[in-house]
Amino acid sequence: MEFSIKNGNAAKELSDCVIVGIYESQKLSDAAQVVDDASKGFIAKIIKRGDMDGKLEATLMLHHVPGMACERVLLVGLGKEADFAEKQYCKAVRATVKAVANSGASDVITFLASLPVKTLTTRRKVAYLTEATLDATYKFEAIKRKKQEGKAGAKKGITTLIVNVATASEVKEAEAGLAEGQALAAGVALAKDLGNLPPNVCTPSYLAEQAVALAKTYGFKVEVLERDALQKLGMGSFLGVSQGSAEPPKFIIMQHLKGAKDQKPVVLVGKGITFDTGGISLKPGSEMDEMKYDMCGAASVLGTFKAIAAMALPLNVIGVIPTCENMPDGRAVRPGDVLTSMSGLTIEVLNTDAEGRLILCDALTYVERFEPSAVVDIATLTGACVIALGHHASGLFSNNDALANELLQAGETALDRAWHMPMWDDYQPLLDSNFADMANIGGRAAGSITAACFLSRFAKKYDWAHLDIAGTAWKSGKEKGGTGRPVPLLTKFLLARASKLN
Ligand code: BES
Ligand code: MN
Ligand code: ZN
């Protein structure tokens, strides 16, 4: 999709479709007024007839509007003018993308970014519009043999989008917003693609290849550690999970070092289980295919790296991905086995399906060497988190409230929310084991909290936060697919850190 910024006149644009907004009070936005004037009251007449009430997200596609150079005019309801803020703006944008997708238009100019929106700068308005448009038009076509394009009567979808801004002096700022939105959308799309790929394609080796390819494209440092190196490091916990699989484990380290030399890095750690059968503690069969998404933490780290690399973000960021499969096998780890983690702490594996924490704990020990300013791990860690928060918010756990607040705030502005969960010491005894320093599960109650408590034992040397994305990383049912979350949250978090430091 091609994007550009313009400061033009809604009536004079030669395009397939011009998008303008109407408030619920029936007040026209400036651009809608221009259309109404050029068409001698055509828009006002339609409103009077009751075909467009201006309610938020309502849309009406008009054809052959007199006096207009374009083929169609899409009216979108903006709701109450006094309430028109960030969330309403975003909803209106998404509604227009949907309406255009249902039409034959492919060459589109939108006047939504020229609307005044409380709390949003032009840069942010354009960035969001770009992101949302690309997000809503994402299609996973890497595998399907029959592509949609070329079918008789098939809609082309948006191919060019011109984003209009209210004044010529805003064009530069809008262009920066456009670049930011495109970079973020590219990261989100990468995370979705990796999640959506089947587990026989998206293996640990495949993830490692993607990291190497990304590093080559953007010129950052990457390293992939193989089994023998992991053995030397003493990653007995990570290797324990991988030992039942025919696919070799990989440990990926990416380094985006664009901050000052002495600036301590932010480290992102992503869970990369490319398929989670549960191991010997086998999962039930229904919907087990969805466990291909158990590498979405890793995908979000790769996606975030793509976004910040495309933005050339001036910050030091290190991405670490332990990746393997969790399979049942003659060599697989058994319930009752005791593993020795890289930290030296021993772990009794009471359930081989609680494997995410077993691979992450060694990664959390490994990253101590970077003397991080903060470590954030991202993992599809527990079904319990889905029960607690559903599919709207990721679970956030942290040993540092300031860091937790930074992430919460980033989630709010990115519309990719997290919710701060408790991690009081009272929960820690649930992990007691009679045979090792700890057990890998804490029982059914507070499952997402005990999982976080387990990780916290390996993250004592730095400020650390954990995002449980089990409910947010993908959608089930008819719209089954990766969401690309929490790439927006992570990218916003890093953008905010960079702007604080520079
Ligand atoms: N990958 C799963 C978590 C998961 C489950 C994510 C369902 C999304 C949907 C994880 O490895 C797992 O199996 N966790 C167990 C932990 C339990 C054995 C303590 C779970 O949540 O059931
Ligand atoms: Mn599992
Ligand atoms: Zn898992």
Secondary structure layout:
Elements (H helix, E strand, L loop, with lengths): L1 E5 L10 E6 L7 H9 L3 H8 L9 E5 L8 E6 L8 H16 L5 E4 L11 H15 L23 E5 L6 H26 L7 H15 L2 E5 L1 H7 L2 H7 L7 E8 L8 E5 L1 E5 L19 H15 L5 E11 L11 E3 L5 E3 L7 H11 L7 E6 L3 H7 L4 E5 L2 H13 L4 E3 L17 E2 L7 H10 L7 E5 L5 E2 L5 E2 L4 H15 L1
Parallel strand pairs: 1-6, 2-4, 2-5, 5-6, 9-11, 9-14, 10-11, 13-17, 14-18, 15-16
Antiparallel strand pairs: 3-4, 7-8, 8-11, 12-13, 15-18, 19-20
The site of ligand BES has 16 residues, from α11.
Number of DSSP helical runs: 14
CATH class of the largest domain: Alpha Beta
CATH architecture of the largest domain: 3-Layer(aba) Sandwich
Largest sheet report: 9 strands, mixed
Q: What share of residues are in beta strands? A: 15-25%
Tell me roughly what share of residues is in helical segments: 25-40%
* Class inferred from helices and paired strands: alpha/beta
Task: Find the CATH superfamily of the largest domain.
Answer: Zn peptidases
Number of strands: 20
Low-confidence stretches: none
| Overall form | elongated
Bound molecules: ligand BES, manganese (II) ion, zinc ion
Tell me the distance between the termini. 32 Å
The domain tally reads 2
Average residue pLDDT: 96
